């Protein structure tokens, strides 16, 4: 009679259910977004321009919202370039930075982008696993699933504004 050993590889320092700290979970989200942003980096010769704007919820400036722009491929441009990201400050303003293997550069690739808005969180140390209440979502749930597009003009813009509604 053959007996099989327990092959549960999720046990260990993280616990029997593979629990990770919230900080580790947010790191995973960040790297997933960065991976999406880098996905178009293989192409050469893309133009960039400065991009900034404001995010409001029900007309009020909203800090702590991560804004990502991912260039959309077309028939003419199969590899549109790297994505960009920014975080709203206390006044709801953000400035995009291109995320590329060679480092960060202000702005975004010129052309059409898919825009994502997600709620950020307070940074915590990687070893901080204390229980805390879940933060109140800043981006209204009905807005999270929306597909947004924005066309970055060749001269750039400071009017890449997004007005969200919780109603």
Q: How many β-strands, per DSSP?
A: 12
CATH topology description of the domain at 42-121 and 137-164: Immunoglobulin-like
CATH architecture label name of the domain at 42-121 and 137-164: Sandwich
Q: Structural class of the helix and strand makeup?
A: alpha+beta
Distance from N terminus to C terminus (CA atoms, Å) equals: 64 Å
For the biggest sheet, the summary is:
6 strands, antiparallel
Shape verdict: globular
Tell me what you see in this structure.
The protein is an alpha+beta fold. It has a domain of 108 residues: Carboxypeptidase-like, regulatory domain (Immunoglobulin-like, Sandwich). The chain is 13% helix and 31% strand. It is built from two helices and twelve strands; from the N terminus they run αββββββββββαββ. The longest helix has 17 residues. The N and C termini lie far apart (64 Å).
């Amino acid at each position: 009679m053959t007996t099989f050993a327990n092959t549960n590889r999720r046990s260990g320092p993280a616990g029997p259910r593979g629990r990770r700290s919230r900080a580790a979970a947010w790191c995973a989200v960040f790297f997933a977004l960065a991976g999406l942003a880098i996905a178009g980096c293989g192409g050469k010769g893309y133009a960039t321009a400065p991009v900034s704007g404001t995010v409001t919820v029900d007309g009020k400036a909203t800090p702590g919202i991560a804004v990502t722009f991912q260039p959309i491929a077309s028939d003419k441009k199969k590899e549109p370039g790297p994505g960009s990201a920014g975080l709203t400050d206390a006044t709801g303003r953000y400035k995009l930075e291109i995320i590329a293997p060679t480092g960060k550069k202000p702005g975004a690739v010129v052309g059409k982008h898919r825009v994502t808005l997600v709620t950020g969180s307070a940074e915590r140390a990687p070893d901080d696993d204390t229980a805390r209440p879940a933060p109140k979502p800043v981006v209204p749930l009905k807005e999270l699933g929306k597909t947004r597009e924005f066309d970055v003009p060749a001269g750039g813009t400071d009017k890449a504004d997004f007005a969200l509604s919780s109603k």
